[in-house]
């Protein structure tokens, strides 16, 4: 069942004000409808005349679509996955799907449990590559911090990992402080991991 | 779960956050992908909503099941914790405290280790909103006939095996 796990604020670039927002664990029909009515049309239009490396790179991977379908269908009925949504202004602004059964690759924690982020996405109207004037800022920060919160709650001390889209690599490496573990031939993306120390440092700033 | 960051912390992070894309993982595909993510339950006439007071007996059944599966393999709590990659503390709580709600990862790891169908184990743990009626009744009967002795008697072993068979059958029936 969808649960409110925190009230936060996102920055509205248009009004230059912070606005109340909420973080939910598990998605529901409302999130699905927001995606269908609001996200998807923009994603589709952008892909049609696409020059941005954000969605199209991954969309061109031969089996990325089917992997997503496969995993998202499992998520709804599985204890292996957790889903999260960020809502602001009554609309879904961010989505995240994580797998809680993966293991760390960094030498410091190799083989230890961690939270693996299968998907982290901000709504298309919040992205620089999609809009000349993106709306909300902070969705990515919220979702990364939420993944660390889950990792801590599960006893993994904040360890998280993910594969970043090309256009996001510098954000994860330089802005957030992940370790760039290099290009993963299997996933066709670079793999990033955050250690316990890096998670603690991220939350302390 | 709780978020371990404050709003003030977040606002500071946002104020210095560069305007760079933050997307990670698989790309968003068809509408059906997100729909599958959402918690949209389907109608099943044999499913019953679990009233809060009925979860306790279910957790008693879960505790007995975990306890007996562990003893069947002659494992200490420490050994089971190591092999199934869960915490000793959680094993103890699940086995002895029916007011304790087992965490999703614990259920998943034990399902993998003992090869018990995840969907039925999740129902017995009280983690789902609904439970198969037959499964519920059998779980209660199983818990009522289980005793906490140091080694499994032949009768206990037969009862445990019968319950595991039932769990597998209920899992197959749902597909």
Structural summary, described in words:
The complex is a heterodimer of chains A (205) and B (175). By secondary structure, chain A is α+β, with helices and mostly antiparallel strands. Chain A contains six helices and nine strands. In chain A, 34% of the residues lie in helices and 34% in strands. In chain A, strands 6-1-2-3-4-5-7-9-8 form a nine-stranded mixed β-sheet, sandwiched between helices. The longest helix of chain A has 20 residues, at 29-48. Chain A is globular. Chain A starts with a strand and ends with a helix. Mean pLDDT of chain A is 83; it is low at 50-66. With 175 residues, chain B is mainly α. Chain B has helices at 7-15, 31-37, 52-72, 77-84, 88-96, 104-114, 118-124, 133-144, 154-173, and strands at residues 24-25, 47-49, 130-132. Chain B has a two-stranded antiparallel sheet with strand order 2-3. The two termini of chain B are 31 Å apart. The model of chain B is unreliable at 40-45 (pLDDT under 50). The chains are: A alpha+beta (205), B mainly alpha (175).
Give the mean pLDDT of chain A: 83
Indicate the low-confidence ranges of chain B by residue numbers: 40-45
Structural class of chain B: mainly alpha
Mean pLDDT figure of chain B: 79
Order of helices and strands of chain A: EEHHHEEEEHEHEEH
Strand content of chain B: under 5%
Biggest sheet record of chain A: 9 strands, mixed
Largest interface: A-B, 89 and 51 residues
Question: Looking across the biggest beta sheet of chain B, what order are the strands in?
Answer: 2-3
Helix fraction of chain A, binned, reads 25-40%
Terminal Cα span of chain A: 33 Å
Shape of chain A: globular
**Tally of extended strands of chain A?**
9
In angstroms, what is the radius of gyration of chain A? 16 Å
Sum up the overall morphology of chain B in one term. elongated
Give me the oligomer status. Answer: heterodimer
Q: Walk across the major sheet of chain A and give the strand order.
A: 6-1-2-3-4-5-7-9-8
Helix amount of chain B? 55-70%
């Amino acid at each position: 069942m969808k649960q409110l796990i925190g009230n936060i604020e996102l920055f509205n670039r248009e009004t230059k004000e912070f606005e109340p927002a909420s973080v939910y664990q598990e998605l529901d029909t409302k999130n699905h409808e927001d995606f269908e009515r609001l996200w998807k049309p923009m994603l589709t239009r952008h892909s049609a005349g696409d020059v941005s490396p954000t969605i199209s790179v991954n969309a061109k991977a031969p089996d990325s679509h089917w992997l997503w379908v496969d995993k998202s269908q499992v998520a709804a009925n599985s204890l292996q996955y957790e889903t999260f949504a960020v809502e602001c202004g009554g609309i879904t602004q961010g989505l995240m799907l994580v797998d809680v059964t993966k293991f760390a690759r960094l030498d410091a924690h190799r083989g230890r449990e961690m939270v693996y982020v299968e998907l982290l996405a901000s709504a298309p109207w919040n992205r620089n590559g999609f809009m000349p004037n993106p709306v909300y800022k902070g969705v990515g920060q919220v979702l990364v911090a939420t993944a660390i919160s889950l990792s801590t709650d599960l006893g993994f001390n904040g360890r998280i990992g993910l594969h970043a889209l090309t256009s996001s690599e510098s954000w994860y490496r330089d802005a957030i402080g992940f370790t760039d573990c290099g290009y993963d031939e299997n996933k066709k993306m670079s793999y990033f991991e955050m250690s316990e120390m890096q998670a603690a440092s991220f939350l302390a700033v | 779960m709780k978020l371990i960051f404050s709003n003030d912390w977040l606002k500071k992070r946002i104020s210095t956050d560069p305007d760079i894309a933050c997307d990670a993982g698989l790309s968003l595909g068809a509408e059906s992908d997100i729909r599958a993510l959402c918690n949209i339950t389907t109608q099943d006439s044999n499913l019953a909503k679990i009233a809060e007071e009925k979860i306790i007996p279910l957790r008693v059944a879960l505790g007995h099941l975990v306890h007996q599966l562990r003893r069947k393999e002659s494992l200490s709590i420490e050994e089971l914790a190591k092999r199934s990659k869960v915490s000793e503390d959680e094993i103890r709580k699940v086995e002895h405290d029916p007011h304790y709600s087992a965490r999703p990862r614990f259920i998943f790891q034990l399902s993998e280790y003992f090869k018990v169908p995840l969907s039925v184990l999740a129902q017995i743990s009280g983690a789902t909103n609904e439970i198969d009626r037959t499964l519920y009744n059998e779980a209660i009967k199983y818990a009522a006939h289980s005793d906490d002795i140091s080694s499994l008697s032949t009768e206990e072993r037969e009862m445990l095996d019968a319950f595991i068979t039932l769990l597998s059958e209920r899992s197959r029936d749902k597909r």
